[in-house]
Amino acid sequence: MSIAQPNVLVVEDEAAQREILAYNLEAEGFRVRIAGDGEEAMTMVSEETPDIVVLDWMMPNVSGIEVCRRLRARSETKSVPIIMLSARSEEFDRVRGLETGADDYVVKPYSVVELMARIRTQLRRTRPATQGEVLVFEDITLDSETHRVQRDGKPVKLGPTEFRLLTTLMEKPGRVFSREQLLDRVWGRDIYVDTRTVDVHVGRLRKALCVHGGEDPVRTVRGAGYALG
Protein backbone atom coordinates (compact mmCIF):
# COMPACT_ATOMS: atom_id res chain seq x y z
CA MET A 1 0.00 0.00 0.00
CA SER A 2 1.50 3.32 -1.05
CA ILE A 3 0.67 6.22 1.25
CA ALA A 4 2.01 9.79 1.14
CA GLN A 5 4.21 10.40 4.12
CA PRO A 6 2.73 12.95 6.55
CA ASN A 7 4.82 16.12 6.57
CA VAL A 8 5.82 17.17 10.11
CA LEU A 9 7.31 20.59 10.87
CA VAL A 10 9.38 20.60 14.08
CA VAL A 11 10.00 24.07 15.54
CA GLU A 12 12.54 23.82 18.36
CA ASP A 13 15.51 26.04 19.22
CA GLU A 14 17.45 23.36 21.12
CA ALA A 15 19.60 21.42 18.64
CA ALA A 16 19.70 18.19 20.69
CA GLN A 17 15.90 18.13 20.99
CA ARG A 18 15.53 18.80 17.26
CA GLU A 19 17.78 15.86 16.41
CA ILE A 20 15.98 13.45 18.74
CA LEU A 21 12.57 14.45 17.37
CA ALA A 22 13.69 14.29 13.73
CA TYR A 23 15.33 10.88 14.20
CA ASN A 24 12.28 9.33 15.84
CA LEU A 25 9.78 10.90 13.44
CA GLU A 26 11.74 9.67 10.42
CA ALA A 27 11.95 6.20 11.99
CA GLU A 28 8.14 6.29 12.25
CA GLY A 29 7.88 7.00 8.52
CA PHE A 30 7.17 10.74 8.66
CA ARG A 31 8.74 13.35 6.38
CA VAL A 32 10.37 15.91 8.66
CA ARG A 33 11.32 19.55 8.22
CA ILE A 34 13.07 21.48 10.98
CA ALA A 35 13.03 25.12 12.01
CA GLY A 36 15.26 26.56 14.74
CA ASP A 37 13.11 29.60 15.50
CA GLY A 38 9.70 31.12 14.89
CA GLU A 39 10.65 33.31 11.90
CA GLU A 40 12.23 30.35 10.10
CA ALA A 41 9.13 28.30 10.86
CA MET A 42 6.81 30.86 9.25
CA THR A 43 9.06 31.03 6.17
CA MET A 44 8.95 27.23 5.83
CA VAL A 45 5.18 27.17 6.29
CA SER A 46 4.76 29.72 3.49
CA GLU A 47 6.83 27.44 1.21
CA GLU A 48 4.90 24.26 2.05
CA THR A 49 1.94 23.72 4.36
CA PRO A 50 2.75 20.98 6.90
CA ASP A 51 0.32 18.24 7.95
CA ILE A 52 1.19 18.86 11.61
CA VAL A 53 3.41 21.23 13.62
CA VAL A 54 5.37 20.27 16.73
CA LEU A 55 6.07 23.64 18.32
CA ASP A 56 8.26 24.65 21.25
CA TRP A 57 6.86 27.47 23.40
CA MET A 58 10.08 29.04 24.69
CA MET A 59 12.06 30.37 21.73
CA PRO A 60 14.04 33.58 21.21
CA ASN A 61 12.56 36.48 19.20
CA VAL A 62 9.24 34.95 18.13
CA SER A 63 7.73 32.64 20.78
CA GLY A 64 5.81 29.46 20.11
CA ILE A 65 2.64 31.21 21.30
CA GLU A 66 3.10 33.91 18.65
CA VAL A 67 3.83 31.31 15.94
CA CYS A 68 0.65 29.51 16.98
CA ARG A 69 -1.35 32.75 16.66
CA ARG A 70 0.10 33.44 13.20
CA LEU A 71 -0.62 29.92 11.98
CA ARG A 72 -4.23 30.14 13.13
CA ALA A 73 -4.61 33.52 11.42
CA ARG A 74 -3.61 32.11 7.99
CA SER A 75 -6.36 30.42 5.98
CA GLU A 76 -3.90 27.76 4.75
CA THR A 77 -2.88 26.70 8.27
CA LYS A 78 -5.86 27.51 10.47
CA SER A 79 -6.82 23.83 10.70
CA VAL A 80 -3.31 22.28 10.78
CA PRO A 81 -2.84 20.39 14.07
CA ILE A 82 -0.34 21.99 16.47
CA ILE A 83 1.27 20.17 19.38
CA MET A 84 2.95 22.58 21.77
CA LEU A 85 5.99 21.53 23.80
CA SER A 86 6.80 23.42 26.99
CA ALA A 87 8.58 23.16 30.32
CA ARG A 88 5.69 25.16 31.76
CA SER A 89 3.53 22.67 33.64
CA GLU A 90 1.08 24.95 35.43
CA GLU A 91 -2.60 24.64 34.50
CA PHE A 92 -2.68 28.34 33.55
CA ASP A 93 0.06 27.79 30.95
CA ARG A 94 -1.63 24.71 29.51
CA VAL A 95 -4.90 26.63 29.16
CA ARG A 96 -3.13 29.59 27.55
CA GLY A 97 -1.42 27.32 25.03
CA LEU A 98 -4.65 25.54 24.12
CA GLU A 99 -6.67 28.75 23.95
CA THR A 100 -4.10 30.28 21.61
CA GLY A 101 -4.87 27.48 19.19
CA ALA A 102 -2.73 24.47 20.08
CA ASP A 103 -4.50 21.12 19.69
CA ASP A 104 -2.36 19.39 22.32
CA TYR A 105 0.09 20.46 25.02
CA VAL A 106 3.03 18.27 26.09
CA VAL A 107 5.15 19.12 29.12
CA LYS A 108 8.95 18.71 28.99
CA PRO A 109 10.63 16.36 29.71
CA TYR A 110 8.37 14.09 27.70
CA SER A 111 8.38 10.51 26.49
CA VAL A 112 9.19 10.39 22.77
CA VAL A 113 7.03 7.28 22.39
CA GLU A 114 4.06 9.12 23.94
CA LEU A 115 4.68 12.16 21.72
CA MET A 116 4.68 9.92 18.61
CA ALA A 117 1.32 8.50 19.75
CA ARG A 118 -0.08 12.03 20.21
CA ILE A 119 1.13 13.01 16.74
CA ARG A 120 -0.57 9.97 15.20
CA THR A 121 -3.76 10.80 17.11
CA GLN A 122 -3.84 14.34 15.71
CA LEU A 123 -3.13 13.09 12.18
CA ARG A 124 -5.94 10.55 12.41
CA ARG A 125 -8.30 13.49 12.90
CA THR A 126 -7.08 15.42 9.85
CA ARG A 127 -5.60 12.76 7.56
CA PRO A 128 -7.54 9.56 8.25
CA ALA A 129 -6.40 7.94 5.02
CA THR A 130 -2.78 7.99 6.14
CA GLN A 131 -3.50 6.34 9.44
CA GLY A 132 -5.98 3.63 8.50
CA GLU A 133 -3.44 1.29 6.99
CA VAL A 134 -4.06 -2.43 7.32
CA LEU A 135 -0.92 -4.59 7.23
CA VAL A 136 -1.17 -8.23 6.18
CA PHE A 137 1.43 -10.99 6.44
CA GLU A 138 0.30 -14.52 5.66
CA ASP A 139 -2.61 -15.15 8.09
CA ILE A 140 -1.83 -12.14 10.33
CA THR A 141 -3.76 -8.88 9.92
CA LEU A 142 -2.89 -5.65 11.76
CA ASP A 143 -5.16 -2.60 11.67
CA SER A 144 -3.09 0.44 12.65
CA GLU A 145 -6.16 2.63 13.23
CA THR A 146 -8.18 0.36 15.52
CA HIS A 147 -5.06 -1.28 17.02
CA ARG A 148 -6.56 -4.72 16.38
CA VAL A 149 -4.62 -7.79 15.35
CA GLN A 150 -6.06 -11.03 14.03
CA ARG A 151 -4.48 -14.34 13.10
CA ASP A 152 -6.44 -16.73 10.94
CA GLY A 153 -9.51 -14.59 11.72
CA LYS A 154 -9.09 -14.90 15.50
CA PRO A 155 -8.31 -11.88 17.70
CA VAL A 156 -4.80 -11.57 19.11
CA LYS A 157 -4.40 -9.55 22.30
CA LEU A 158 -1.22 -7.47 22.37
CA GLY A 159 0.14 -4.85 24.75
CA PRO A 160 1.18 -1.45 23.31
CA THR A 161 4.86 -2.40 23.05
CA GLU A 162 4.16 -5.74 21.36
CA PHE A 163 1.80 -3.94 18.96
CA ARG A 164 4.52 -1.45 17.94
CA LEU A 165 6.99 -4.33 17.63
CA LEU A 166 4.69 -6.30 15.34
CA THR A 167 3.92 -3.17 13.29
CA THR A 168 7.64 -2.60 12.71
CA LEU A 169 8.21 -6.21 11.64
CA MET A 170 5.10 -6.31 9.41
CA GLU A 171 6.03 -3.09 7.60
CA LYS A 172 9.07 -4.86 6.12
CA PRO A 173 8.53 -8.64 6.11
CA GLY A 174 11.75 -10.61 5.71
CA ARG A 175 13.97 -7.73 6.79
CA VAL A 176 16.23 -8.52 9.72
CA PHE A 177 16.07 -5.86 12.45
CA SER A 178 18.86 -5.74 15.00
CA ARG A 179 17.93 -5.30 18.66
CA GLU A 180 19.30 -1.75 18.52
CA GLN A 181 17.11 -0.91 15.51
CA LEU A 182 14.04 -2.29 17.25
CA LEU A 183 14.88 -0.29 20.39
CA ASP A 184 15.05 2.91 18.30
CA ARG A 185 11.79 2.24 16.46
CA VAL A 186 9.70 0.83 19.31
CA TRP A 187 11.00 2.62 22.40
CA GLY A 188 12.58 5.77 20.96
CA ARG A 189 16.16 6.90 20.75
CA ASP A 190 16.35 8.97 23.93
CA ILE A 191 15.06 6.25 26.26
CA TYR A 192 17.56 3.85 27.80
CA VAL A 193 16.32 0.29 27.57
CA ASP A 194 18.56 -2.78 27.81
CA THR A 195 18.69 -4.80 24.58
CA ARG A 196 17.57 -7.87 26.54
CA THR A 197 14.23 -6.12 26.98
CA VAL A 198 13.71 -6.61 23.24
CA ASP A 199 14.07 -10.37 23.69
CA VAL A 200 11.46 -10.34 26.47
CA HIS A 201 8.90 -8.48 24.33
CA VAL A 202 9.62 -10.63 21.26
CA GLY A 203 8.91 -13.64 23.49
CA ARG A 204 5.59 -12.12 24.55
CA LEU A 205 4.73 -11.32 20.94
CA ARG A 206 5.47 -14.89 19.87
CA LYS A 207 3.35 -16.31 22.65
CA ALA A 208 0.41 -14.04 21.76
CA LEU A 209 0.61 -14.83 18.04
CA CYS A 210 0.65 -18.58 18.69
CA VAL A 211 -2.05 -18.64 21.39
CA HIS A 212 -4.54 -20.19 18.91
CA GLY A 213 -1.93 -22.47 17.37
CA GLY A 214 0.05 -22.05 14.18
CA GLU A 215 3.77 -21.75 13.51
CA ASP A 216 5.89 -19.02 15.08
CA PRO A 217 6.18 -16.34 12.35
CA VAL A 218 9.04 -14.46 14.06
CA ARG A 219 12.45 -15.66 12.95
CA THR A 220 15.54 -15.31 15.15
CA VAL A 221 18.68 -14.61 13.14
CA ARG A 222 21.58 -15.58 15.38
CA GLY A 223 23.94 -12.69 15.96
CA ALA A 224 21.79 -10.31 13.89
CA GLY A 225 18.29 -9.88 15.32
CA TYR A 226 14.72 -10.70 14.37
CA ALA A 227 12.62 -10.85 11.20
CA LEU A 228 9.07 -11.71 10.24
CA GLY A 229 9.05 -14.69 7.91
Automatic annotation (TrEMBL):
SUPFAM superfamilies to which the protein is assigned, alphabetical: C-terminal effector domain of the bipartite response regulators, CheY-like
Residue numbers bearing the 4-aspartylphosphate modification: D56
DNA-binding region, residues: 132-229
Major subcellular location class: cytoplasm
Cellular compartment(s): Cytoplasm
Signal peptide: none
Domain Response regulatory residues, every copy: 7-123
Keywords: Activator, Cytoplasm, DNA-binding, Phosphate transport, Phosphoprotein, Transcription, Transcription regulation, Transport, Two-component regulatory system
PROSITE patterns per record: OMPR_PHOB, RESPONSE_REGULATORY
Listed Pfam families: Response_reg (PF00072), Trans_reg_C (PF00486)
Start and end residues of each OmpR/PhoB-type domain: 132-229
General function of this protein: This protein is a positive regulator for the phosphate regulon. Transcription of this operon is positively regulated by PhoB and PhoR when phosphate is limited.
Protein known as: Phosphate regulon transcriptional regulatory protein PhoB
Source species: Albidovulum marisflavi
Gene: phoB
